[in-house]
């Protein structure tokens, strides 16, 4: 991770909330296809109970990545928006740092399992998730679109 990068949990009452959300929505539109993007419903997603968003800024305060997670029940949590990182900041450890922080946040909720979905063709993402302990549960046909599947992956937490 580059020196000077800062990992922050988005707080609705923070003074820079609107600016951060605006930057994330721009990233969302640029990184994800329209049918996969939460850009139109981002504010609604953030208002949900039992959800959180972590973002990372560079030395200039610019948002370079984010991850959204939720814990809909006491048993499970999910990464609802995977660690998205601006192209110019990739391969520097930002995605891994964001994902590790989200995993830790979910652990504090005492859930038993953390799940996510990922396109099996996203080799780098699959490698990162496996490196952090996620295992493929199943292949879900036509998850993203008629011709794009998803691997459902999970990370079980120790019950100790």
TrEMBL record:
Domain of life of the organism in this record? Eukaryota
The UniProt entry, under Pfam families, shows: Acetyltransf_1
Residues in N-acetyltransferase domain copies:
8-158
Q: Name one GO molecular function term.
A: acyltransferase activity, transferring groups other than amino-acyl groups
Do you know which InterPro entries this protein is assigned to? Answer: Acyl_CoA_acyltransferase, GNAT_dom
This protein is called Uncharacterized protein LOC111298451 isoform X1
- Organism of origin: Durio zibethinus (Durian)
